[in-house]
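Practice problem: Molecular chaperone DnaK
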Amino acid sequence: MAEDIKVRYSDADLAKFKVIILEKIEKANKDLELLQSAYKNDGNNGTDDTSPTFKAFEEGSETMSKEANTQLAIRQEKFVRDLKNAMLRIENKTYGVCRVTGKLINPERLKLVPHATLSIEAKNMQS
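Answer key — structure tokens:
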């Protein structure tokens, strides 16, 4: 009947992971704000008086930069959402438990990827 025992991290361990996640959320939100201001900014660099060819090149480059920043912002939003979901798992005391194997995810992995829901073992099975 040992399988009935739910394996989980201790409350003390969860508290340590919570600090790491909160710090990452704060940094991720700051990065997201920078990205959003970059792609929302019109960025008129005063190319009105330059040659039409250069202006077209400049506008094309600006469009590509905005698209790249938009993609980065979307990825950053997902990262923040994943971190917030990790906080919910901490509150539910299910944080750090692999959703495939049910085993504890290596704490070193969680320090590097605090929103991980798969152990390396489970991740390798997906490949």
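Discussion: The first helix runs from residue 11 to 40. Students who identified this feature from the tokens alone can consider the problem solved.
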